[in-house]
Amino acid sequence: GAMFGATLVASVLLTAFLWGEALSAPRADARLKAMAVAKTDVGFLVVAPDRGFVGNEDTRDAFEAFAEGRHAALVIATDERTHAGLAEALRNLAQRGARRAVVLPFFLSGADPRYALTRRLLDAGAEGQPKAEGGRASPVTSPIPLTFARPFGESYLAVEILADRFRAIQAPAGKRVVVVGYGAKDAENRAR
User: Is the pLDDT of residue 4 over 60?
Assistant: First the structure.
């Protein structure tokens, strides 16, 4: 449980780190990275699902290592209140000099309801749609253009990690694999 969560956090942030290196500052010592960050216009918005206090602290710890020397912000997606966190993070990225941002979704699946909420809030804001009605949060208007990476679970790295876990099983004959998740919150998610 905790080991898988830590491995997942590290793997997602490693992917983001490698992508971030390609898009922003070259590998260098901390002083050179700090100077390079001032020159780059790319920001990174990591959006992660709420994993409870301990899980969120693990996510924050891993994020801090990634964020060093970059324009980066972390938002923990919960429910409609996620709107305020997204808006503040994007404003902060723009104020620190990012002229565009890559959204790095820290979700196993695009079907995760909190990922769907995040996409809905950011996509609607980007399209300039009017304020939502019926109790739903209004779109988040981003001051900078956004590009979305795929959710971690849809990446080749996630498949490789899972394959490595299966390969690590000692004497697999007769062993069973149990995949654990949580249930759908509504009819739309049950259909996925």
Answer: no
Residue type, 134: G
Q: Which two tokens stand for residue 156?
A: 């080749």
**What whole-number distance in Å separates Cα of residue 119 and Cα of residue 173?**
42
CA 52 centroid distance within chain: 16
pLDDT computed for residue 22 by the predictor: 39
Give yes or no for a contact between 54 and 6, defined as CB atoms under 8 angstroms apart. Answer: no
Q: How crowded is the C-beta side of 85, counted as CA atoms within 13 Å?
A: 18
What pLDDT is recorded for position 26? 41
- 57-82: b or e for each residue (b if 16 or more CB lie within 10 Å)? ebbeebbeebbebbbbbbbbbeeeeb
- 90 touches 142 (CB < 8 A): yes
Phi, psi of 131 (to 5 degrees): -55, 135
Three-state secondary structure along 35-67?
A: HHHHHCCEEEEEEEECCHHHHHHHHHHHHHHHH
d(CA 51, CA 58): 9
Mean pLDDT of all residues in 42-65: 93
The residue among 10 and 88 whose pLDDT is bigger is 88
